[in-house]
Amino acid sequence: MKAIVVTDQAAGRAGMTLTERPEPPAAINDVIVEVHASGFVPTEMDWPSTWTDRRDRDRTPSIPGHELAGVVSALGYGTTGLSVGQRVFGLTDWHRDGTLAEYVAVEARNLAPLPGDVDFTVGASLPISGLTAWQGLFQHGRLQAGQSVLVHGAAGAVGSMVTQLAREFGAYVIGTGRHADRQKTLDFGAQEFVDLENDTLDDVGGVDLVFDVIGADIQKRSAGLVRAGGTVVTIVGPPVARPANGWAVDFVVEADRAQLNEIVARVRDGRLRTNIGTVATLDDAVAALNPTERSKGKTIIRVRP
Ligand SMILES: NC(=O)c1ccc[n+]([C@@H]2O[C@H](COP(=O)([O-])OP(=O)(O)OC[C@H]3O[C@@H](n4cnc5c(N)ncnc54)[C@H](OP(=O)(O)O)[C@@H]3O)[C@@H](O)[C@H]2O)c1
Description:
Layout: E1 2-5, E2 17-20, E3 30-39, E4 67-75, E5 87-91, E6 103-107, E7 111-113, H1 120-125, H2 127-140, E8 148-151, H3 157-168, E9 172-177, H4 182-187, E10 192-195, E11 207-212, H5 216-223, E12 226-234, E13 247-250, H6 257-269, E14 276-281, H7 285-288, E15 298-302
Parallel strand pairs: 8-9, 8-11, 9-10, 11-12, 12-13, 14-15
Antiparallel strand pairs: 1-2, 3-4, 3-6, 3-15, 4-5, 5-7
This protein binds NADP nicotinamide-adenine-dinucleotide phosphate.
NADP nicotinamide-adenine-dinucleotide phosphate (NAP) is lined by residues 41, 43, 128, 132, 153, 155-159, 177-178, 181, 196, 213-214, 235-236, 252-253, 294.
């Protein structure tokens, strides 16, 4: 099969090549998915799981990309819940070969059915951003209706999902980002916008939850805004700051079929809008994933155009 592989951690994304790899075998409880569209998070190149297996052994050449939409083409021993020919989408194991390939082996429980009226490109854009937003807001951030949320990078892939889900849940949303991202952030439903290039966060006042996708100094400056009992949820590594009288939580997104069902239901009825930037074919994937200018929104690779 055709696949994008990486072999050299120092080379990062620039070291990606399009090559031939053997089709993956299906393990117990796996499905094989014929990949139609694949998503990719650039920081995967920094994660040990891209380079080693769960026993920390080198697993290169490895195939990146860990979210997909496609069609089940085979079942592993004992697999239940999905069937051959079924449209699916979801998040695959970080330590196994990923979705920038014509086929991928993935545990069936990590996938959900993709309704027939949701395009594969849209399906592949939802798992990482959608699940991260859902888990950060409702599990780790314990958001309550009526609370206020400061959403950093609110025009980005995760931030735009956070903004929309928090608004739907009845929160007051203050989005942040670059000067140029004001209108996009308001269009996703934020009630206020803070321009991190020109405004100061000190004017924000108290919030119940900070959803941080940037880290470093922005996170430090945000921790002081959290009201007693509130939380900073960050997705960019261990917290660098804690609220004086609250919590700081970092996490890595997990696969969850029930949450994927919730997310895709919202896309179908218009409550949730995905945030796709570039769409490219597998033949053009290396260039698309190494843009010369900063790309906005998710880059999706159409493995089967
Ligand atoms: N832990 C997890 O499970 C998990 C899951 C998903 C993502 N992540 C991580 O979360 C981060 C965000 O992911 P994403 O997919 O949402 O990325 P994204 O689409 O690039 O969104 C990030 C947003 O933040 C903005 N931004 C970044 N630095 C900024 C700064 N200093 N000032 C103002 N705006 C700034 C970006 O603007 P520009 O594009 O103009 O820079 C962009 O709008 C990445 O580091 C990713 O690896 C972690």
